[in-house]
């Protein structure tokens, strides 16, 4: 008895210690985010005050200045939404059938195809900088949402195929075979039977692809000049312009970050699953 | 997919075999670009910097991630919400995080130096001092990516069979021995997943150094993606950048494949 009581006491003590470590980590990690949001509400003369000001004289001045001096920032945010949505649609429209074929049909050299998909998922995006820039220049599609949507889709489709295949493998083969016996075509099976069954998978990859597109920087600053996404616009227009008035950069950064944090938090189960390529099914 | 990624790859290959720059296409040059890239000290320097950056981050993220995963699983109340809060740095747009950290680490106006001055430490130019630049960069990546490691490992630890752990406890194994001799081996598949994912991601790092250090000081943080980006945008080295892209991709893929193999071998 005494022994087990002591063990419970020790594990409780360990629990408190563990909790304080975790809480400390969370506080340290969230402090920079809190600082950025706080900075965005300060007056410009206080931005770089040393010692720093904390909660005095806060207001919306920086946000007002941001939209007054950079009216295109509204556009950047809209473009971000368009590009994120478009990328989700394109990568699902291509990824869903591809994944279906690689899961259900008897494809020659399936292993080789799957290995190719995995290799494509490993490609570092910067490796295709030169050809993608040339291709979109030649097609006269630089500075368009289409170029960004198709580029982001290209980088995400291998991931989408791989993830959806994981979900499709959970579909009972009986259902597929019964539909085939009933004379349903593959298009019908995919649209009427498989797609509804892997809805959760589509949500998972869709969410992850949307976050990727919203956060992407490299191709956003290379492929576009005025019709930028918010992330690219913030870096290449506001930050690189060396604007005098960092409050605007803080305000813009807050406007880019807060929607994506709220979104990812709301759908964190899918976010986690996507983050780990399906390795963790929390 | 083959069209979307395959076509750019072919264009890439063709460009790398030619001499192309902003003044136009100067015809085929065979493997000349490959020869010059492979003997280019600055290219290999950038590959080494990438490897150094990846190694520092990987080790620290893994150690911190494992320690915090063990801690998270022992939290008595509020473990669920804590997991969500832990994840927030991973959700934040890396480019915005980098801007924020650059201003925080600014030598004269940053709040970090104000904090360190409170405890009497000298002023440090975190992102521009050769002694600290790489560590400043790594710190931001650790801030951003450790949550991923915590999450995967904590899920792995939770799914472990309680019987085995209880048996170990009854046998009087210490917490440390249980961790090293039982938990770690059982976690191996997930550890490999974590390592593979982190390496792929660390090799593609662009946003953080692009904003935080811009490759400096003295190219000490000039990772391969920055090198390729800069060569392409100088305008004179289009083919050169394409070739660097191919060689760097090959390095990444060989490395990735080796890891995938060991992952497969372990699972079967």
Structure characterization notes:
The complex is a heterodimer of chains A (282) and B (268). Chain A is mainly alpha-helical. Chain A has 2 domains: 2-62; 69-275, Orthogonal Bundle (MetI-like fold). Chain A contains 13 helices and no strands. Chain A has helices at residues 2-40, 61-69, 72-104, 110-122, 129-138, 145-168, 173-181, 186-197, 199-215, 218-223, 230-239, 246-266, 268-275. The longest helix of chain A has 39 residues, at 2-40. Chain B is mostly helical. Chain B has a single domain, classed as Orthogonal Bundle (MetI-like fold). Helix content of chain B is 74%, strand content 3%. Chain B has a two-stranded antiparallel sheet. In chain B, strand 1 and strand 2 form a beta hairpin. In chain B, helix 3 packs antiparallel against helix 9 (175-204) and helix 4 packs antiparallel against helix 7 (133-158). In chain B, 43% of the residues are buried. The chains are: A mainly alpha (282), B mainly alpha (268). Chains A and B meet through helix 1, helix 3, helix 4, helix 5 and helix 6 of A and helix 1, helix 3, helix 4, helix 5 and helix 7 of B.
Give the helices and strands of chain B as they follow along the chain: HEEHHHHHHHHHHH
Number of helices of chain A: 13
Number of domains of chain B: 1
CATH topology of the largest domain in chain A: MetI-like fold
Proportion of residues in helical segments of chain B: over 70%
Under CATH at level 1, the class of chain B stands as: Mainly Alpha
Helix/strand-derived class of chain B? mainly alpha
**Regarding quaternary structure, how should these chains be classified?**
heterodimer
Overall geometry of chain A comes to: globular
By CATH, the superfamily of the largest domain in chain A comes out as: MetI-like
């Amino acid at each position: 008895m005494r022994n087990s009581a002591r063990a419970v006491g020790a594990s409780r003590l360990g629990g408190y210690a563990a909790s304080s470590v975790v809480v400390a980590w969370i506080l340290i990690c969230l402090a920079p985010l809190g600082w950025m949001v706080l900075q965005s509400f300060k007056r410009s003369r206080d931005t770089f005050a040393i010692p720093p000001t904390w909660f005095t004289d806060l207001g919306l001045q920086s946000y007002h200045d941001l939209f007054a001096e950079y009216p295109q920032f509204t556009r950047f945010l809209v473009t971000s939404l368009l590009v994120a949505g478009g990328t989700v649609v394109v990568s699902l429209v291509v990824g869903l059938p591809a994944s279906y074929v690689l899961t259900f049909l008897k494809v020659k050299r399936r292993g080789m195809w799957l290995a190719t998909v995995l290799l494509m998922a490993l490609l570092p995006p910067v490796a295709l900088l030169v050809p993608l820039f040339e291709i979109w220049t030649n097609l006269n599609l630089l500075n368009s949402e289409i170029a960004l949507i198709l580029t982001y889709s290209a980088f995400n489709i291998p991931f989408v195929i791989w993830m959806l295949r994981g979900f499709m493998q959970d579909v009972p083969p009986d259902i597929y075979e019964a539909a085939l016996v009933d004379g349903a075509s593959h298009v019908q099976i995919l649209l009427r039977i498989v797609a509804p069954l892997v809805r959760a998978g589509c949500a998972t990859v869709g969410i992850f692809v949307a976050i990727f597109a919203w956060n992407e920087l490299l191709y956003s600053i290379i492929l576009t000049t005025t019709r930028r996404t918010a992330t690219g616009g913030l870096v290449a227009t506001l930050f690189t312009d060396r604007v005098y008035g960092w409050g605007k950069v803080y305000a813009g950064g807050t406007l880019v970050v807060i929607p994506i944090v709220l979104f990812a938090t709301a759908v964190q189960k899918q976010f986690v699953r996507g983050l780990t390529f399906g390795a963790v099914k929390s | 997919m083959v069209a979307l990624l395959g076509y750019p790859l072919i264009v890439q290959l063709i460009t790398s075999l030619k001499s192309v720059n902003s003044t136009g296409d100067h015809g085929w040059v065979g493997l000349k670009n490959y020869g010059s890239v492979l003997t280019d000290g600055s290219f290999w320097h950038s590959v080494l910097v990438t490897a150094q950056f990846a190694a520092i981050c990987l080790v620290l993220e893994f150690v911190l991630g494992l320690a915090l995963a063990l801690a998270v699983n022992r939290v008595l109340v509020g473990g669920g919400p804590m997991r969500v809060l832990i994840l927030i740095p991973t959700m934040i747009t890396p480019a915005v995080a980098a801007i924020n950290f650059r201003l925080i680490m600014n030598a004269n106006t940053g709040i970090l130096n104000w904090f360190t001055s409170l405890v009497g430490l000298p002023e440090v130019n975190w992102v521009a001092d050769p002694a600290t630049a790489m560590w400043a960069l790594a710190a931001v990546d650790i801030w951003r990516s450790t949550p991923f490691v915590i999450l995967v490992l904590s899920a792995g630890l939770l799914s472990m069979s309680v019987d085995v752990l209880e048996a170990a406890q009854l046998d009087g194994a210490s917490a440390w021995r249980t961790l090293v001799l039982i938990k770690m081996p059982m976690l191996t598949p997930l550890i490999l997943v974590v390592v593979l994912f982190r390496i792929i991601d660390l090799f593609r790092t662009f946003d953080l150094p692009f904003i935080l250090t811009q490759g400096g000081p003295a190219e000490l943080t000039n990772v391969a993606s920055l090198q390729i980006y800069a060569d392409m945008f100088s305008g004179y080295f289009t083919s050169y950048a394409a070739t660097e892209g191919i060689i760097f991709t090959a390095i990444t893929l060989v490395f990735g494949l080796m890891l995938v193999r060991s992952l497969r071998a372990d699972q079967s």
